[in-house]
Amino acid sequence: MKLTIRKRTLGTIPLLEVVQKEKRNDLLPLIVYYHGWQSSKELVLTQGRRLAAAGFRVLLPDAANHGERKQPITKIPSLTFWQCIHTNLFEFGYIVNHFQKLGLVDDRIAVGGVSMGGMTTCALLTHHPEIKAAACVMGSPKPVAYRERIQRYASEMNRFIPNDYEDLLTWIPKYDLSLNPEALGDRPLYIWHGKQDVIVPYDHAREFVEENPNRSITFEDEDEEHLVKTSTMDRITAFFEKEMMN
Q: How confident is the model over 200-228, as pLDDT tens digits?
């Protein structure tokens, strides 16, 4: 079995399409998979290959201000970070719609991501009931809590942060899965997080799982830092196979 990795540009969005070569023109289940902060689409290609080998059409977009869209990062804490997630949310439907118009995608749509991409994933679940399954890897389903964490750290380090910081980010609570858990419904969600993660708090994932005992959540943690190993990638692939290939 051979995989084909095709570089596409949708409007201003560079992405990689990973799919089995002999099935590249077939109607396949779709996974949009997002990279993390200060990363790029190429750095989630290993996961993309595993998912494609399992029979998915996988799309790996560059987030705004990342990869081929790289721009200088502002000195204002978290401005670029939140812009990237917000742009991901704007662009998700556009990406899916493009491949639906090509006749390559039906209603078997899934999403996943690492770190910032995991936060994007959880946020998308609040407004996109068409998503059938999702994987949040080292991300936070609690972006309001993460916003507060950034605000607190910036104050402690005596860094400038706008007085109207929360008002400028009023969209976040509406996309906070922990504040809108009913949006998840009974859709399967895989969450993986390292217990020693100092970048995105492990407690955000653990607390969300504990707060939602009746949801269809698969939660795995390990004594790891902010790092995804290939064994974890295999479990992510197995999760999507189980939930999307039946």
A: 999 999 999 999 999 999 999 999 999 89
- Under a CB-based contact definition with an 8 Å cutoff, are residues 106 and 28 in contact? no
Class of domain 3-244: alpha beta
Rg, the chain, Cα only: 17
3-state secondary structure the chain: CCEEEEEEEECCEEEEEEEEHHHCCCCCCEEEEECCCCCCHHHHHHHHHHHHHCCCEEEEECCCCCHHHCCCCCCCCCHHHHHHHHHHHHHHHHHHHHHHHCCCCCCCEEEEEECHHHHHHHHHHCCCCCEEEEEEECCCCCHHHHHHHHHHHHHHCCCCCCCCHHHHCCCHHHHCCCCCHHHCCCCCEEEEEECCCCCCCHHHHHHHHHHCCCCCEEEEEECCCCCCCHHHHHHHHHHHHHHHCC
If pLDDT is split at 50, 70 and 90, which confidence band does 153 have? confident
Tally of residues, the chain: 246
Neighbouring C-beta atoms of residue 183, cutoff 10 Å = 17
The yes-or-no verdict on residue 72 having pLDDT over 90 is no
Confidence class for position 73, pLDDT limits 50, 70, 90? confident
